[in-house]
């Protein structure tokens, strides 16, 4: 059926165009021969094709444009006729003899255009006659196009100020009256279209009406272009008449479109000065009208107007724009009880944007808007509308974008209250936006109170919200927690007392994050605390320490106590490797602070973690390297504590399963004393590895291991360690030679894999050793048993 209807319409259009073109042909021939009577006859027959009711508005428009082109040619002919002496008044009377009213009125409008140009009669009289005569067509589509033609041919002939058709002082009002009357009649015809045809085709008719809306809206554009329409006339005449027609038509489509037209076509300063009148019409619109969009676009235009120049801001204060808009939005929301929460939040979002542009210094206004939004949200409970959620994010993002300062947003008491109504996922998105704003603008959150308020806002990233059980993508989770970690590192205050309060506040929040978050959030807190420790070290230099201490002051010892408690939580996560690393970092910081008992306690905790929690052999190797490396840098320990920690590290190395790894680790425990003991023990382990090598012929493991031990001996020999003598090195070289000869592998391969690149071949290494030995003092030639 639909396909057949489209095909039929195409046939009707083709037939109408054919008839129009045929009569246009005869009209052209009459025009060429200056035959006025035939020209009128065939033009009337041509225009009769517009009387059809079979075409949709879209197809009718195609036919109308063909007729419009022909009418322009006919108008030029009428001008020529008046130059040849034909009376324009007689011509105006003659065209009214056309048989059908629609062709008659098209011809009358065409001649009327020439009549106004001739100036033989006042423009206002001709226009008034034409607009009244057009009432003869009451068919919606035909009437709309006829009046559209009238508007088009008369728009440059209105008696406006500065126009060649300007008459006395009242002519501007006549021009306005003409456009308003034509607009009113067109709107009535447009609204009447919804009642044409069966109810089942209502949706189709609404679509067709939407296609014709610009025909009506052009009248408002013409009104806005009339020079004589100043603010006073707009306020007293134009706006009241337009709004009266908008409200009285009681049509959803017409009301929304025309209100939007008024907002878009008239100047911003007019809207500002007539704000109360314009806003007063909004509650009178039909409940189904999308008022939120109308008001949002109005506030958007006013916001842009305010942003265009600082000179216009006093006008906003003068008319109390914020108060009027705020009251209007409240009235509209109360009047439209069925307005979805999405609509209400959109209005408040637009109002907040307006407020931030016009009154950036009035935080109380912004907080008032947020409070009104919170009140509306509290009456609806938790949101389940994704569109409303997006609008809340836009609402909360506006202050961040305007001020580029989260600290300013923290001053808004209703900000966190609105944020509570976001679902857990969106809450995290908003928290991420806040953190990104801090990062981008390098905002300094410098007090514990501000940190408390900030973490209240980003709670969704700090801990699991109530009722949030959805699965989280691992990559997204990691990215979120990394952003929190970066935020923690940015928190700073030069005052140690306040910085310590910030650290305690952050610790209180992150301890609620659960085992998944702690590995991300504890490290930055630890390093921020260690930074504070080093700051205190710098302040304490040159000052005498109070032997009795000061409980109210912040000391490194107090911070280390807090860190010990914090890192201890990681062992229950479990994240033993991370906790071990942090303990070692703290031990090194305690070393710099000359706190031997504290450093020893941290090392003890690291050793306990190693013994009880680190079971993987690779992780053990890494942990041992860290512990031994840190132990090397420690200078705070006395002989007893150092000896205890060193022997423990040596014992851990000996217990590892792989002997090849054991020897290398033993060589790592070469603290400034006991070097020879460690190296000898490494040789004993290497001998054990040699036995393993003999069991698997072709393995170069033991030879490589002896070369590594030689490297260590040479290192301490060059450093002039008195315990390492030439005899020890020479015996080790001989041992390596013997080992290489007994293995089925070439010495060059072993040395290529094992010796440092700068050492060259084994023979060159041997020569180097001989040179070193020759240069030694006699006392160092004493043999030492290997």
TrEMBL record:
Keywords: Cytoplasm, Endosome, Golgi apparatus, Membrane, Protein transport, Transport. The keyword Transport applies. It comes from the Eukaryota. It is a peripheral membrane protein. It is found in: Cytoplasm; Endosome membrane; Golgi apparatus, trans-Golgi network membrane; Prevacuolar compartment membrane. Its main location: cytoplasm. Pfam families: Vps35. GO terms for cellular component: cytosol; endosome membrane; Golgi apparatus; late endosome; retromer, cargo-selective complex. One of its GO terms (biological process) is intracellular protein transport. The keyword tRNA-binding does not apply. SUPFAM superfamilies: ARM repeat. Gene3D superfamilies: Vacuolar protein sorting-associated protein 35, helical subcomplex Vps35-C. PANTHER family: VACUOLAR PROTEIN SORTING-ASSOCIATED PROTEIN 35, VACUOLAR SORTING PROTEIN 35. Belongs to the VPS35 family. Plays a role in vesicular protein sorting. This is Vacuolar protein sorting-associated protein 35. It comes from Hevea brasiliensis. The lineage of its organism: Eukaryota, Viridiplantae, Streptophyta, Embryophyta, Tracheophyta.
């Amino acid at each position: 059926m639909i396909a057949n209807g489209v095909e039929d319409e195409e046939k009707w259009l083709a037939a109408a165009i054919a008839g129009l073109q045929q009569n246009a042909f005869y009209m052209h021939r009459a025009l060429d021969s200056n035959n006025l009577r035939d020209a009128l006859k065939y033009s009337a027959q041509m225009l009769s094709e517009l009387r059809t009711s079979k075409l949709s508005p879209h197809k009718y428009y195609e036919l109308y444009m063909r007729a419009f082109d022909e009418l322009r040619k006919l108008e030029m002919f009428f001008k020529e006729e008046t130059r040849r002496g034909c009376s324009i008044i007689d011509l105006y009377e003659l065209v009214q003899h056309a048989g059908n009213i629609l062709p008659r009125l098209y011809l009358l409008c065409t001649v009327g255009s020439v009549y106004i140009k001739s100036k033989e009669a006042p423009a206002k009289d001709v226009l008034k006659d034409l607009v009244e005569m057009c009432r003869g067509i009451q068919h919606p589509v035909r009437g709309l196009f006829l009046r559209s033609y009238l508007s088009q041919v008369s728009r440059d002939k209105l008696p406006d100020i500065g126009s060649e058709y300007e008459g006395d002082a009242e002519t501007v009002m006549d021009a306005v009256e003409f456009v308003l009357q034509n607009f009113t009649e067109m709107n009535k015809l447009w609204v009447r279209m919804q009642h044409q045809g069966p109810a089942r085709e209502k949706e189709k008719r609404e679509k067709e009406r939407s296609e014709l809306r610009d025909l009506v809206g052009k009248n408002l554009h013409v009104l806005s272009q009339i020079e004589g329409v100043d603010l006073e006339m707009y306020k007293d005449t134009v706006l009241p008449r337009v709004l009266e027609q908008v409200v009285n038509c009681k049509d959803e489509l017409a009301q929304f479109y025309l209100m939007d037209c008024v907002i878009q076509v008239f100047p911003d300063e007019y809207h500002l000065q007539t704000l109360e009148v314009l806003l007063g019409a909004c509650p009178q619109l039909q409940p189904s009208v999308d008022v939120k969009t109308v008001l949002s676009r109005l506030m958007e235009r006013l916001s842009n107007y305010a942003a265009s120049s600082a000179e216009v801001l006093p006008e906003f204060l003068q008319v109390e724009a914020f108060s009027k808009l705020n009251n209007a939005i409240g009235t509209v929301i109360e009047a439209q009880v069925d307005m979805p929460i999405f609509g209400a939040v959109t209005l408040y979002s637009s109002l907040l944007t307006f407020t931030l542009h016009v009154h950036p210094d009035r935080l109380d206004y912004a907080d008032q808007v947020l409070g009104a939004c919170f009140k509306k949200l509290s009456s609806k409970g938790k949101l389940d509308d994704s569109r409303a959620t997006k609008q809340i994010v836009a609402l909360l993002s506006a202050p961040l974008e305007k001020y580029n300062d989260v600290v300013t947003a923290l001053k808004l008491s209703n900000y966190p209250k609105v944020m509570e109504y976001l679902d857990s996922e969106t809450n995290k998105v908003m928290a991420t936006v806040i953190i990104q704003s801090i990062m981008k603008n390098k905002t300094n959150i410098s007090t514990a109170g501000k940190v408390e308020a900030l973490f209240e806002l980003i709670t969704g990233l700090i801990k699991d919200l109530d009722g949030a059980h959805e699965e989280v993508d691992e990559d997204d989770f990691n990215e979120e927690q990394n952003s929190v970690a970066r935020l923690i590192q940015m928190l700073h205050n030069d005052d140690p007392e306040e910085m310590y309060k910030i650290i305690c506040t952050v610790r209180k929040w992150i301890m609620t994050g659960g085992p998944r978050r702690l590995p991300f959030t504890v490290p930055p807190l630890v390093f921020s605390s260690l930074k504070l420790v080093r700051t205190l070290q710098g302040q304490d230099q040159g000052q005498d320490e109070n032997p009795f201490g000061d409980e109210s002051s912040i000391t490194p010892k107090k911070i280390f106590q807090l860190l010990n408690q914090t890192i201890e939580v990681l062992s229950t996560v479990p994240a033993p490797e991370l906790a071990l690393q942090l303990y070692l970092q703290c031990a090194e910081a305690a070393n710099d602070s000359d706190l031997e008992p504290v450093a020893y306690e941290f090392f003890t905790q690291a050793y306990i973690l190693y013994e009880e929690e680190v079971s993987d052999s690779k992780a053990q190797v890494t942990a041992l390297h860290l512990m031994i490396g840190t132990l090397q840098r420690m200078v705070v320990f006395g002989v007893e504590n150092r000896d205890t920690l060193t022997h423990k590290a040596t014992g851990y190395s000996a217990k590892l399963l792989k002997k090849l790894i054991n020897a290398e680790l033993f060589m790592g425990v070469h603290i400034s004393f006991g070097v020879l003991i460690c190296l000898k023990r490494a040789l004993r382990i290497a001998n054990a590895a040699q036995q393993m090598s003999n069991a698997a012929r072709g393995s170069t493991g033991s030879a490589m291991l002896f070369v590594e031990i030689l490297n260590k001996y040479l290192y301490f020999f060059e450093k002039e360690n008195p315990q390492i003598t030439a005899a020890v090195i020479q015996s080790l070289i001989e041992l390596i030679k013997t080992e290489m000869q007994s293995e089925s592998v070439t010495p060059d391969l072993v040395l290529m894999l094992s010796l440092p690149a700068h050492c060259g071949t084994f023979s060159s290494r041997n020569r180097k050793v001989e040179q070193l030995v020759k240069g030694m003092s006699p006392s160092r030639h004493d043999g030492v048993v290997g």
